[in-house]
UniProtKB/TrEMBL annotation:
Protein name, UniProt field: Histidine biosynthesis protein
UniProt cross-references to PANTHER family, sorted A to Z: 1-(5-PHOSPHORIBOSYL)-5-[(5-PHOSPHORIBOSYLAMINO)METHYLIDENEAMINO] IMIDAZOLE-4-CARBOXAMIDE ISOMERASE
Matches recorded under SUPFAM superfamilies: Ribulose-phoshate binding barrel
UniProt pathway: Amino-acid biosynthesis
Alphabetical list of InterPro entries matching this protein: Aldolase_TIM, His_biosynth, Isoase_HisA-like, RibuloseP-bd_barrel
Family to which this protein belongs: Belongs to the HisA/HisF family.
Keywords of the record: Amino-acid biosynthesis, Histidine biosynthesis
Pfam families xref list: His_biosynth
């Protein structure tokens, strides 16, 4: 099972995401035990000192919310770390992505909250983020009702559990793994510690997106070595 650190970008800084209320997100270094800056390159450097992660997940919250973007900082990150793979969600529509050239070390994430209608992603290399809040899928309900549209890799993003210290939505994740054994599911939201990671691995989760548990020290280098 892969562990993928999350970089949430807002107003030019990496922020600590909590509860899905993006207006209240604060710079990550205010609460982090591993970095003393919220500048994106320094946060990535701090995370790589903790563990040599091969992949990172970036959410450009300004772009997702239609309030600007962090394109320059993100492109700089790609060029500084050519041997790392980055998954990027910037709220782009599928139609926009079909006209966009991507760099070789970036995989694009399509979030259901940013799409008007479901589209066929099955034979693409895109990553689908099934976005949930208060147990409801964000975006068109057809995304959840039409698994034949899904690509191979799908993030299950439970926004109200992000940074909550309440644990993942094990029931939903387990059901998805059982119902769709041909898909790879990535858990996002609520992971607290090694016990959560072990349970996710047991139910068949392919990867986990992590931020809070890395920054608060609950999941350290010794824990990461086990996965």
């Amino acid at each position: 099972m892969q562990i993928i650190p999350v970089i949430d970008l807002k107003d030019g800084l990496v922020v600590h995401a909590a509860g899905g209320d993006r207006s209240r997100y604060q710079p990550v270094h205010f609460t982090s035990s591993i970095c003393d800056s919220s500048e994106v390159n320094q946060v990535v450097t701090s995370l790589l000192k903790l563990y040599p992660f091969p992949k990172f997940y970036i959410a450009d919250l300004d772009a997702i919310g239609g309030q600007g973007n962090h394109d320059e900082a993100i492109d700089n990150l790609f060029s500084q770390h050519p041997n790392k793979e980055f998954w990027l969600d910037k709220g782009s529509s599928y139609q926009t992505l079909t006209m966009t050239t991507r760099v070789i070390n970036c995989k694009t994430v399509i979030g259901t909250e940013s799409q008007r209608l479901p589209v066929l992603l099955k034979n693409t290399d895109l990553i689908l983020s099934l976005d949930f809040k208060h147990n409801q899928v964000l975006g068109h309900p057809g995304w959840l009702e039409s698994p034949e549209l899904w690509p191979e890799t799908n993030v299950v993003m439970t926004l109200d559990l992000v940074g909550s210290n309440k644990g993942p939505d094990f029931e939903k994740l387990s059901q998805l793994c059982k119902s769709h054994p041909d898909k790879h599911f990535v858990a996002a939201g609520g992971v607290r510690d090694v016990n959560d990671l072990m349970r996710l691995k047991t139910i068949g989760i392919a990867a986990v997106l992590l931020a809070s548990a890395l920054h608060n020290g609950n999941i350290d280098a010794a824990t990461l070595e086990k996965f």
